[in-house]
What we know:
The structure holds two protein chains of two kinds.
Chain A: H1 2-21, H2 26-65, H3 69-89, H4 96-127, H5 133-148, H6 159-195
Helix pairs in contact in A: 1-2, 2-3, 5-6
Chain B: H1 22-40, H2 54-68, E1 73-76, H3 86-105, E2 109-113, H4 116-132, E3 144-146, H5 151-165, E4 169-174, H6 179-189, E5 193-198, H7 201-210, E6 213-215, H8 219-228, H9 231-265
Parallel strand pairs in B: 1-2, 1-4, 2-3, 4-5, 5-6
Helix pairs in contact in B: 1-9, 2-3, 3-4, 3-8, 5-6, 6-7, 8-9
Amino acid sequence: MDRRIALIICFVFGLVMFAQFFSDHPVAHRVNQDVLVEYVQIIFAFALIVGVVALVRNSIKQVSSGQDRPFRMVMLAGLVSMPILAIGWGIEAGSPFQWMFENVQAPMQSTVFALLAFFVASASYRGFRARSVPAAILLAAALIILLGRSLMIGPLAHVLPDIAEWIRNYPSMAARRAILIGIGLGSLTTSLRVIVGIERTWLGGEK
Amino acid sequence: MQPLHLIATVTSDPEWIDINRLPTLIAAVVAVAIVLYTTYHRASRRKFKMRRIAGLNAVEEAIGRATEMARPLLYTPGWGGDIQRPTTIASMNILAQVAEKTAQYDCRLVFPTHDPVIMSVAQEVVREAYARTGFPDRYRADDITYVTSSQFGYAAAVDGMITRLKPASIFLLGTFEAESLILAETGHSVGAIQIAGTDSTIQLSFFIVACDYTLIGEELFAASGYLSQDPSILASVRAQDIMKLLIIVMLVVAAVWSTIGFLTNGGGEGWWTF
C-alpha cells in the first residue's frame, strides 16, 4: 500500500512538472519554485541529517576497531570543529571559520584538483598509443588539435589552426550531438518509465 | 508639437501555454505517445533482438572477478547528479542488477556517494535486491555511505577507498564532472576492471581512455532493460530507436530542403528557408 501511494505521488508530480514546463502562467512558475527549489531542499536537509549521522556512526565504529583510524579521526575532527568555529565566532571575513576554509579546506581541494594534470598525462599516454586504426585516428586528431591551439611558427602556422577548428566544428561536434540526442532520448524514456510506474527500482524494485 | 503622454497601460492575461515552447510540447507529446505505445501495445512488445553492449556484458565478468579475488566491488554515481536526474535513476537501476549478483556471489559492494538522498535510495535499492535473491543477511548498510557534498572532497574520499580497499571492479555510472579522470586513473592504478558511463560528453572522453568498458549515450539508460530483460523496459528501449529513426529522417529532410533552398534561392529569404 505504501508503495502504491509513492507511485501515485510520483505520477501526479511527474505530470504536474511536465505540464508546468510548457506554461508561462505565474501559477506554473510558482509550482516550479515550490517543488524544485523548496520541497527538494527540505528533503535534502532531512536526508543530510541521515547521511551525516550514518557517516559519524561508521567513522566511530572504524576508529574503535582500528580500521583507517588516522583518516577517520581527521574527518571527525573537521566535522566537529567547523560548526563549532562557525557558531562560536561567525563566518565573516577574518573569522577562524574563514581562516580554516581558506587555509585548510581550499588548498586541500586545489591539491586534489591539481592531480588531474598528472592523470591527464598518464591517461593520454595510454589512450594515444596507436595500436589500432581508431586509436591512430584519435592520436592524429589529438596532435592536430594540440598543435593547432599552440603558438606555432613556420609553414604550418596558418594551416593547422584551421584544420583543428574544422575537426572541432564538424566531426567532433557531429559525434557529440549524436551522443547528446541519445542521452536526451534515454533521459526521456527513463523519466517516463518512472512516472508511469514501469521502472520501480527507486522504490526497491518491487513489481 | 504636443508632447506625448502615457494615458493608459495595456496588460494581457498570462498565458497558460507558452507559445514559444509549443514545438517542444508537440515533440514531447509525440515521444510520449511512442513510448506508451511500444510499452503497452502487445504486438510491439514481441521479443526483438537487442544489439550486444560490451560494457553490460562485462558486468557479470566484473562481479565474478571481484568474487574470485575476494576483493570488494566499488560502485559510485559521480558527483554531478542528484536523485532528480534521469542519469542517477538509470544508475540506480543498474545498481539493483549489480546488487542482485553481488548478493548471490557474496561479494562486498561498496557505494560511496556525495548526496544523502542518493544514499537513502541506494540503501533501499540494495537492501531489496539482497532480500529478493534470498540473502538479506549479506546486506551491509555501512558500505552504502555518504562521504561529503564537496566535489574534490568526494573525489579524495573515493580515491582513498579505492587505494585502501583495492576493489577488483569499479563501476563509475552516473553524472561525473572533473572528478571522473581522478577516480578512473586511481582505479586503473590498483588494477581494477572498470565499467563507466555518464551523460557528460566531456567526461565520456576521459572514461573511454581510462576505463576498460564505457557505456556511451543511451546505452546507460538501456542498461537496466538489457540486464534484467524486462519486456516493459526493453519496449521503451525500442521506443528510443523509433524516435532516433524519426530524428534521422527529419535531419536528412532538413539538410536536403536547406540545400535545395540555398541552390535555388542563393541563400535568400523564402518559405523554404530555414
